Q: What sequence folds into this?
């Protein structure tokens, strides 16, 4: 498995990031443990989670994903074989939100406890917090790095101007800088990243670990008509958002390239992302070993220039 650096952090990661939001939600404890074992075995050892995962599920309150990973780490003893990214900032209860130094200090200790580790490889701002000065947030992160509790920091859901400003603050104040950005990006959702954010990340040498890599499952080819909305809990939203002329063009291009390589739209979608300039390791999840096998296969799929042109043209914005 080839490795790529997360920005200028010195941390080397594989070509895909595994989305840990499924742990403690759509993957039970036993399944989660088997997925984590298989990820390490296949060198897909970069796991992205967040303190808030998966608070949206009935009966959950947040912290379930980190807790599951922590229990697996304790059982497996494989902490040195995985790279763990988590996030702070989303609502975790009364007074538990945002990027104030006080809350960051509290939240990181909570995450470390749930993960049963003494350090986090990549600690990310889950949302921009305009109520807290950037210098205060970055100083808090800088202190965590100096204390050895965090190796590098990243940003998620930042607009281009705010990301640029944060990087300037770090440089001016001599503070740790964001080494990564986590934006929404896939064959369908291109404009939001490509219009402004891509230039910022490339100019400053940031790593990009994009989420919704398969557009909530649309780019797997599973949803092709209104009748398909019953295939998942979010099927109605997927049908409403993506089944339009542009969406159908993208599916047709995926089918064409997949047939050429005798593979699936899922693998082609991910291979396109892996090949994109400036993209470090797209985030993608699985809830079974069979699905995981497809993700592993995607890292081995080499698209040629014609394939990429077909996909670029069909998904142009």
A:
């Amino acid at each position: 498995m080839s490795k790529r650096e997360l920005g200028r952090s010195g941390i080397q990661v594989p070509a895909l990031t595994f989305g840990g939001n499924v742990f403690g939600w759509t993957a039970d404890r036993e399944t989660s443990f088997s997925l984590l074992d298989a990820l390490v075995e296949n060198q897909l050892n970069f796991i992205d989670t967040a303190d808030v995962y998966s608070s949206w599920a009935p009966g959950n309150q947040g912290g379930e994903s980190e807790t599951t990973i922590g229990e697996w780490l304790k059982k497996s003893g494989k902490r040195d074989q995985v790279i763990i990214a988590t996030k702070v900032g989303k609502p975790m209860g009364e007074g538990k939100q945002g990027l104030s130094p006080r809350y960051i200090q509290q939240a990181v200790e909570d995450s470390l406890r749930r993960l049963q580790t003494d350090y986090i490889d990549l600690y990310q701002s889950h949302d921009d917090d305009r109520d807290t000065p950037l210098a205060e947030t970055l100083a808090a992160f800088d202190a965590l790095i100096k204390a050895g509790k965090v190796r590098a920091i990243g940003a998620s859901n930042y607009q281009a101007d705010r990301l640029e400003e944060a990087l300037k603050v770090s440089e001016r104040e001599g503070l740790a800088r964001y080494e990564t950005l986590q934006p929404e990006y896939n064959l369908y959702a291109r404009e939001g990243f490509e219009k402004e954010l891509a230039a910022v990340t490339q100019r400053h040498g940031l790593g990009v670990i994009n989420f919704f890599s398969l557009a909530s499952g649309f780019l797997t080819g599973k949803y092709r008509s209104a009748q398909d909305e019953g295939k998942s809990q979010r099927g109605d939203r997927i049908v409403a958002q993506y089944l339009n002329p542009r969406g159908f063009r993208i599916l047709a291009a995926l089918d064409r390239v997949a047939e050429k390589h005798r593979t699936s739209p899922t693998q082609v979608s991910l291979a396109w992302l892996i090949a994109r300039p400036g993209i470090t390791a797209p985030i993608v999840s699985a809830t079974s070993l069979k699905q995981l096998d497809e993700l592993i296969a995607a890292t081995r799929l080499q698209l040629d220039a014609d394939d990429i042109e077909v996909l670029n043209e069909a998904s142009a914005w």
Remarks:
- The two ends are 32 Å apart (CA to CA).
- The CA atoms of residues 121 and 151 lie 5 Å apart.
- Residues 245-261 form the longest helix (17 residues).
